[in-house]
Amino acid sequence: MLTTALRTTLLQAAKSRQLRQVVENAPVSRSVVARFVAGNHTEDAVRTSASLVADGLLVTVDHLGEDTVDQAQANGVRDAYLELLGRLGDSGLAEGGAVEVSLKLSAVGQSLGADGPKRSTAAAHEICSKAAEIGTSVTLDAEDHTTTDLTLESLRDLRRDFPWVGAVVQSYLRRTEGDCSDLAHEGSRVRLCKGAYAEPASVAFAETAEIDRSYVRCMRVLMAGQGYPMLATHDPRLVDIAGALAVQHERDQGSYEYQMLYGIRPFEQARLAALGEKVRVYLPYGEEWYGYLMRRMAERPANTAFFVRSLVSKG
Ligand code: FDA
After folding, report:
1. Does residue 5 register a pLDDT over 90?
2. Which of 88, 104, 122, 206 could make a disulfide contact with 94, Cβ separation 3.0–4.6 Å?
3. What integer pLDDT is reported at residue 298 of this predicted model?
4. Whose CA is nearest to atom 51 of ligand 1?
5. Which sequence spans correspond to the domains of the chain?
6. Ligand 1, CB cutoff 6 Å, lining residues
7. What pLDDT, on a 0 to 100 scale, did the predictor assign at position 314?
């Protein structure tokens, strides 16, 4: 009960401009943010990616920024991705898709007026062209439920030229099991996560147990299908079930992958990789870390306690 209230409050806080100013200007130690975010600049993302790859992990890099308010900002995000991909290509890190990128369509203008979806798809197309040039892939992050149809439509458009573009589905949405059936075809890369936004009960399961059961149903569909499931969770029970499903469906290691966030359960990431599993780390970078950090706080009270302690001890 208390956890649900804290989660709701933190997800509301993620949207608050006033609180954002307070937190961003607080003397919060850099190390708190650094636990979850590579740094502010492209070189931070490239350096941290190199270190993760050296440890036997795969990476998907996210340039932090969402709720883009004008076209100039959207162009800035697109350019940041093009620069990042250029640097990943030069460094050899993109080879074989070892380091790819994750993209939020809202960051490249999806909500900017009636032709926002068209313009954000065009920006994503440019980013995908650059990724193709250096031999890696792009995954379209899932945002709140009002954007799900638009994002899946963009995915279909992009996959005409770039069939490897990854989809993301969220098990807390009631529709997702059906989306998984549609997406579980050959060559289709699909990330399954629980979902990180505050959603109404009309579209989403609210109870943890329901969300977890939905995750298992969706995972069954994806693991039984012909696509490439990307199982994004830190939940030990779900990781175990994924392993059992891989055995049941006679999937070889490498025909699916685990994904976890940078800074969360790093020992588990290393353990799975040591067993020969593909493990991809979602690595955010950039100055717009506030919303991302608030969603991580909402997921786990221990993260919140860690953050508040740091604020108090450095304040
Ligand atoms: P949950 O948060 O319920 O945790 C389950 C269990 O995992 C805990 O009980 C604990 O045992 C363990 N655990 C979790 N955190 C831990 C920690 N810090 N230390 C130790 N144990 C811990 N969301 C979205 O809406 N759109 C998106 O595009 C994405 N993309 C995405 C990519 C990747 C790679 C990941 C891993 C996640 C996302 N998400 C996302 C976020 C996702 O929806 C979800 O909010 C978080 O992953 C948290 O959910 P878990 O499945 O980890 O379970």
Report:
1. no
2. 88
3. 78
4. 233
5. 1-36+289-315, 37-288
6. 141-142, 168, 170, 193-197, 232-236, 259-261, 264-265, 282, 299-300, 303
7. 38
